[in-house]
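Students often ask why we bother encoding 3D structure as a string. The short answer is that it lets us treat folding as translation between two languages. Here is a chain of 160 residues written in the first language.
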Amino acid sequence: MKILNSTFEMALRFLAIMSVCGYSFSEQRLRAYSYFSIHLSDLDNTKMSAHPNLPFRFNNYIGTEKILHPAIHLLITKGMLTCNTSGDGIKFSINDFGKNCFDFITGPYKAKLIHSIKEVDTYFHDKTDDEIYNCICQGLDSWGSEFDNESVLNSYHNEE
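And here it is in the second language, the structure alphabet:
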């Protein structure tokens, strides 16, 4: 069973985000919060990320498009999220059962993730989804590109 970068991992992160923040989220906002909650240093380079700064890590954001709906579907079908529709579109919110399930999770990673989510929310809470998307578009070329020349280190041609 694949755990990392899976529907299950994404669903747990969405559960964490909505539990910590306590308000409803659009898909776009969930994707952004999910990415920055594990790559906080891409938002503020003075902060420590929950996950390592790997080359091409922005692909994690791009890849969430394929598992976003299955992750939300998993949480809705398990009775942990509520889907709300309005003139602003579709938004998702955690319910009491989802909060209780999140509370059962323990460990140092949970504490680190909660801290990161709070930092992300401090940065984005008052921004619109469009403003968040513009922030992402401005940074996507640089997040992970600090490793542009790592292929030199991996090349056999440079060995004697």
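Translate back mentally: The first strand starts at residue 81 and ends at 86. Keep this in mind for the problem set.
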